[in-house]
Amino acid sequence: MTLCPLLDVFLILRDRNLDLGPLEYIDAVNVLIAGHVSSRDELIWTLQALWGKSLDDQLAIETLLNQALPSRITPDQLAMLTREAQKQTAPSELESKSELQSEPSNSLRSPAEDRSSPPEAPLQGQAVEEHVEFSPLERPTETRPVTAPADDMPVLNFPFDLRGEVPGVRRNMRRSWKYFRRMGRSGAAEVLDVAATVERIQRDGVLVTPVMVPRRRNLSRVLVGVDRGGSMVAFEEWTDTLINAGLQSGVSSFEQFYFRNAPGEIVFQDPLLCKPVKFDELQSELEDFAVLIVSDAGAARGAFCRQRLRQTQQFLQRITAGYCRLAWLNPVPQTRWHGTTAEFVAMEPNLSMFPMDRRGIDAAMFVLRGRVKS
Amino acid sequence: MSRVFGNLLDHRERETELSNLTYRGDGLPPNGAAAQKYPYLADERLVTVVNMSLSLGRPLLVKGPPGCGKTELASSISFELGLKLHKWHIKSSSQAKDGLYQIDVLRRLQDAQGQNPKAQSIVPYLRFGPLGEALRSERTSVVLIDEIDKADLDFPNDLLRELDRMEFSIDELEEVDAKQHGMKRVYQAQSPPIVIVTSNDEKELPDAFLRRCLFHYIEFPTEARLREIVAINLADSKVGESLIRAAVSCFHRLRRTGGFRKEPATSELIDWVTILHRWKVPLEMLQEETPLTDLPYWQLLFKHQADLHSVARLDRSIDEVQDQGTA
Questions:
Q1: Complex ipTM
Q2: Shortest CA distance to B166 belongs to which of B189, B183, B194?
Q3: Residues A224-250: pLDDT tens digits?
Q4: Which of A22, A249, A51, A30 is nearest to B213 (CA)?
């Protein structure tokens, strides 16, 4: 690859939305300088512990490092690596790197590119001429004439393994779910309210009983309906991530149901649509619930279906009778809604439909909280 | 920008007592006496990560399946390095401030009502929590923040300033009051403690907190490692090696069937081997060929009725297949 594999991997991880900043890079350099790393394995473990905040992140780091580093590293090579990495923290280097970062994904290297490109090609935009020393890890770079790609490109026989490639999506969804919090006091009165107690003493002149209030809790309750099967098969991974992120976000009560195409009188308790249940039974507690529907509403098929629209309208009437907060997330991009059932569902009163990108999910969370974002 | 980074590099390299300590993960006390070995073995990767945490002075966040030694790691570190251990077991009602200090307001109010002169000062009602004690102490210590994901989402963020700068301030305490009683308003750690945080991954932790910590996931141990762990935990009971080997092998067979609501973990295995040893179960009952449901006291390993049923069902189906084969 290039002169400083550590910096390359760091920049690629940043492109993949891992939460990394210059301080993290400096920490890694400091650990190397302090001499705590004495083998290739320890280098990988170190960077995983420093930069990876979840198993997915750590897997991404491991994959990239295995590509970037040679299979064996001698202590001398490790020392050279440390020196190169440290040099990158010199002021002029970091400024030029930060300029690189502001360029719109020109420096983004997808894993497919990594596998097929020849290992000597320098990182785009890096000023190679400035470095007089060359790392013994690579041969010195030289200008090459433009050639056609080699015929013996490796054939990808294995299915694409995206684990560790896009850890950012899950993190963004978790962040969005955190907006859905409704703090309130409920439960047994077990916390002392100091201000109120002092006021009571002022009023009564003597302390008889202190004022106790219930603890503040997250009272958010959500009922999520997910469209499964048919046109939603392509989005299953994505909607499952959304559900899992919601389950882990500390929402006080999280119920889910599943349906096909449009929710009706009967919905299902499991994603395989095998355990039917009457929606009215779920609805009995709907007053303080927020309801989130995740469905393409016909946008994936690209056509208008009157029956689907009618079924959806009937369902909406059933819900909104309970005055609960309702939001709809559509995994199909908003530009594709025109001319489909989704366009008409989106126009229903009391319903806010959002695309399932980051902004859309955040907006949906605001609606679920009861604060409508204009 | 160059100036900023220059300063930061120096700041991060500060020498602390921590940087001179090394964790080995072998269970031996500081004096190296093998007779007092602590029953906890850490693998190479965990040892590397713990030493990195010591060197950088950053908290270490540990996750992993239940029963694989997340909480015991802190005890192991404190034993091997000869340091005091402060345990803070988080509950769902825990507030960040409670780990630093607590003030018994009600008692002070009652004393004030009763004209008790003690109520003039807040100091008699001030009690320090585990993290507060660790930051106050002159020697380095180990702080365990156990099951941090049980608390509210904001809890880890409330601790950020304290963990970053290793200092805390007591807002309710006035300067005059503090001086009279020989206390301070702001406590900065003389030697920063080692902070180990465990999480069961039930809730996601805030990003700002995650960035401060190093992260390590403890995998479930391999069969060979399990044997070592059981041996070291039951060293006092003098359990035979062949019993341990047979029991661990059967345990692995059970675990491999999979699909459990709660998989049997290390702690269940240790309990099981203890019972097998104490009640003198013969080795013949723990062979490779023994059907799973015929293993003595195998139910001890599970906590859910559904899991017991699935093992029994699996055994029955194996029997049926074998019968059909022989018929």
A1: 0.76
A2: B189
A3: 999 997 888 888 888 888 888 888 887
A4: A51
